Amino acid sequence: MPIVKCSVSNCEYWSEGNNCSAEMIMVEIDSHAHANFKEEFAGEYGHDSQHKDQVNDSSQTCCHTFKPKKDEKK
């Protein structure tokens, strides 16, 4: 598995050194950014990977693996 770097520190899968600890990464195109693919992919594999899209550069993509960190305060 490749090393995935991420600077979104409020993600459940963010780990020290700006590394992503998710078991799987789902990258989607921006035009699908507000589609409901039942997020929280890393452990559930409930994503839509059947469609195929094309973009011209990375600025047209987004990561759908993001999951907000759970509040650690009790």
Automatic annotation (TrEMBL):
The protein, known as: DUF1540 domain-containing protein
Superkingdom, taxonomy of origin: Bacteria
InterPro entries: DUF1540
Biased composition, class Basic and acidic residues, residue ranges: 45-55
Residue numbers spanned by region Disordered: 45-74
Ranges of residues in domain DUF1540: 4-66
Organism per entry: Brevibacillus aydinogluensis
